[in-house]
Amino acid sequence: MKAKNMLKIVFIALLAVPAACDVKDPIHNTPHPEHGTVALTTDWSGIGEGLTAPASYTVAATPAAAAATSGYTATLTGTTATLDHLFEPGRYILYAYNTPEHITVTGTVASVEAATPPTGQTGAFVRNAPGWLFASAMDVAIEADAEHALTAVMQQQVRQLTLVIEPAGNTTDRIEHIEGYLSGVAGTLDFSAGTHATPTNVELQFAKITSGANAGKYAATVRLLGIAGEQQKLNAIIRFTGGSPEALNLTSDLTTELAAFNADKRKPLTLGGKVVETPTGADFSATITDWTPGNGEGGEDGSAGMETNN
User: Fold this and answer.
1) Could you tell me if 76 and 59 are in contact, meaning their C-beta atoms sit under 8 angstroms apart?
2) Where does 151-198 have alpha helices with state H?
């Protein structure tokens, strides 16, 4: 009986071996078979000359599908990092940005901080010297059981603009200062869609250049998210010592000259124009035309015309 029982046990065991061999252990590529991970590199090589990458920046990932789970946000340093998060499979908007002075970022929309209108002016104004914003956004597909290596190419999102005015005539030595503002600048920027919006104004604080080839001219430099709206217009006032002659109003449509301003923000843009004559009479307004890229010395004769109207 013992021998027969032993044979039965051996027989049953032999029958079980093939069945066990048919069950294969699943093979995974990563320790997280149901999720994906991201190793991110930030490329800062395309920012403007003389600018440096910020010490820290924010990385965020927002699921493209409304039904997906919440996204991911972290503050990182350095150019490479593995995001400390297990992502569910799906499509995401992955974006990175720094947080410069006077700019806030909500999602992929950057907004310039509001500024107090200059004396005598009304309407919405924004800060004229926000910090340098760099940002990147991309649509990515994250797969389960995968480790993704991605590169975020950081784009400069703020551009410097300098307007140079060269007064001329027999009252230039009586100029006390020039003040003004530029309309049609962008108050917001969706850097994922590349959409500049919320047209607003920015104050221009002109200062007299005292040395170099441009000595005697007046320059105002601002930093902008971009331009927005249908028109960009310079409104300026030349004020004279002792109020004599009376203040001269300057207006100029810069829509054409700034049409491509949002294109390459790494390169500062300078536009220069020359006031052909500074009138000595009162109640004049002036329009500067023929603005020239550069320092105001462009064109074959280095000047721009001015139309005066009583």
Assistant:
1) yes
2) none
Does residue 61 register a pLDDT over 50? yes
**Residue 289 and residue 306 in contact, taking contact as beta carbons nearer than 8 Å:** yes
Encoding tokens for residue 81? 């990092």
pLDDT tens-digit map of 214-267: 899 999 999 999 999 999 999 999 999 998 888 888 889 999 999 999 999 999
The DSSP element (H or E) to which 16 belongs, if any, is helix 2-21
Tokens of 190: 């969706």
Q: For 251, phi and psi rounded to 5 degrees?
A: -130, 150
What does the DSSP assignment read for 22-41?
T-PPP--SSS-TT-EEEEEE
Q: Work out the burial of residue 279: count CB atoms within 10 Å of its CB; fewer than 13 is exposed, 13-18 middle, 19 or more buried.
A: buried
What are the boundaries of each domain within the chain?
A: 36-98+133-156, 159-309
Residue 253 contacts residue 271 (beta carbons within 8 Å):
no
Q: Rounded to an integer, what distance in angstroms lies between the CA atom of residue 266 and that of residue 263?
A: 9
Do the domains 159-309 and 36-98+133-156 match in fold? yes
What region, left, alpha or beta, does residue 195 occupy, with left being phi > 0 and alpha being psi -120 to 50 degrees?
beta
Q: Is the pLDDT of residue 16 over 80?
A: no
Q: Tell me, which fold does domain 159-309 have in CATH? A: Immunoglobulin-like (2.60.40)
Q: Which CATH number fits domain 36-98+133-156: 2.60.40.1120, 3.40.50.620, 3.40.50.1400, 2.60.120.280?
A: 2.60.40.1120
Rounded Cα distance between 156 and 34, Å, is 36
Reported pTM: 0.84
Burial of 118 (0-12, 13-18, 19+ CB in 10 A): middle
